[in-house]
Design a protein that fits this description.
268 residues; alpha/beta; Rossmann fold; 7-stranded mixed beta sheet; 10 helices; 7 strands; Methyltransf_12; methyltransferase; SAM-dependent_MTases_sf; transferase; Class I SAM-dependent methyltransferase
């Protein structure tokens, strides 16, 4: 019997066949990123000031925020990214703007030494932070805001990807993902933010993942590994077929949901 292996080699920043990461393969077949960019641009456009000082926490290559920036806004941005490969891309993507700074540190390192305050703090899909630490993390993010200031927290909702991940992660790695395990979603962060002074708004983005055809099996595998974080080659053939059947009976389409939490601290 094969031993199921958590996927380290297929982490989203690792280059895959065709020079794409699993995350980039996923992005080819989902419109989630496009919808999220449009929504973030609308949110930033509604901020009254024409000049914004922004902190982007865990920004990856920076393109999510860069592509979301309203043209009418002047921006001073601090991009924070701890991982080496995306940081190298980030430096290339931001080099044309002298008002943008790239920092290769963890949030914990940055927070210990930072003395700045920001109009906007963006925290999008910070999956490397455990849910048990959300309370402390969110309070730290809020403490970095000017008064007034806005925290934008983005996290997956409860959708068909949730069902897919729960079904197969609990099946394949029950010691790590027991039956009562649930994939993380925005609701815990929403609960915390609503308990704080200020105003919290929830916006839901709905999008669609359309898996490629069976002739592009390598790309299907990349997307599956992206969501399950389990090496495909370590999964039994029976379960591999079950995963492919799960996708096929849904006509290769899974509906996605994303929660954008907008916490506004108002000035006195």
């Amino acid at each position: 019997m094969k031993k199921v292996q958590a996927s380290v080699s297929n982490h989203q920043y690792r280059k895959e066949k065709g020079n794409l990461t699993p995350f980039e393969v996923y992005s080819r077949y989902s419109n989630a990123l496009d919808i999220s960019i449009k929504q973030l641009r609308n949110i930033l456009s509604e901020v009254e000031s024409n000049s914004l000082k922004i902190l982007d926490v865990g920004c990856s290559d920076g393109l999510f925020l860069i592509n979301s920036l309203p043209k009418e806004k002047d921006t001073e941005i601090t991009f924070l990214e701890p991982s080496t490969d995306p940081f190298e891309k980030l430096v290339k993507n931001t080099g044309h703007n002298k008002e943008w700074e790239c920092i290769n540190q963890t949030f914990e390192e940055f927070y210990r030494n930072n003395k700045e305050k920001y109009d906007i703090v963006l925290a999008s899909h910070l999956y490397h932070f455990p849910r048990e630490g959300y309370q402390e993390l969110l309070l730290q993010l809020i403490s970095l805001l000017k008064d007034p200031g806005t925290l934008i927290w983005i996290e997956r909702g409860i959708d068909e990807i949730t069902d897919f991940k729960k079904r197969f992660k609990t099946m394949l790695l029950p010691s790590k993902y027991p039956e009562n395990w649930t994939p993380r979603n925005y609701k815990r962060a929403l609960e915390i933010l609503r308990s704080e002074e200020g105003n919290t708004e929830l916006i839901l983005n709905n999008s669609v993942l359309r898996f490629p055809c069976t002739q592009k099996l390598n790309e299907i595998i990349a997307i599956v590994e992206f969501f399950l974080n389990i090496e495909w080659s370590s999964i039994s053939e029976t379960t591999q077929n079950e995963i492919l059947e799960y996708i096929t009976v849904r006509e290769r389409v899974l509906n996605e949901e994303e929660g954008i939490l907008i916490y506004r601290r108002y000035g006195n």
